[in-house]
Amino acid sequence: MTDSSTPRRDIDRVASGLAACLPALHRALDRQVTARYPHPKPPESQLALLRFVAQREGATVREAAEALLMKPNNVSALVSQLTDQGDLERRQDDADKRVAHLHLTATSRRRLSEVRDLETAFIRDALASLTEGQQGALGSALDALDALTRHLHPAAR
């Protein structure tokens, strides 16, 4: 006979562990990348917008705001900053001149690729220090983490 509270305790343990672990993992990775990256690191909100545009080239400000869970006027301000810095381009929609589509510049595309390469290298090195069982468990968890992300972040659906 099983205790009906056991699954609840397991879910609580996993939820608590993820809530503690994921931000710490992000901060540790961010610090390592910042230490090795040769360019000034943009603020997190700008970086999030650049990453979104890299995934959805040609997206509008409204689409970016929905995906990033931000107000459109805040995203518009970020777009202005990134455009002024030469990291983002606004291209007017052919059918509706009020709509602008967002595109990365060659420089920001290259820099995002450099950051992704650094992140991958740091994680690869850390993974190599784990046991095969731990590596396998993390690999197996990727689908579940993607599903959890989609559940918590409706725009990712």
Brief summary:
The chain has 157 residues and is mainly alpha-helical. It has helices at 5-36, 44-55, 61-68, 72-84, 106-128, 132-152, and strands at residues 88-92, 100-104.
What structural keywords apply?
single chain; 157 residues; mainly alpha; two-stranded antiparallel ribbon; 6 helices; 2 strands; 6% strand
Explain the overall architecture.
The model has no long low-confidence stretch (mean pLDDT 91). Strand 1 and strand 2 (100-104) form a beta hairpin. The radius of gyration is 19 Å and the shape is globular. The longest helix is centred in the N-terminal third of the chain and has 32 residues, at 5-36. It has helices at 5-36, 44-55, 61-68, 72-84, 106-128, 132-152; strands spanning 88-92, 100-104. The chain is mainly alpha-helical. Helices cover 69% and strands 6% of the residues. The protein has a two-stranded antiparallel sheet with strand order 1-2.
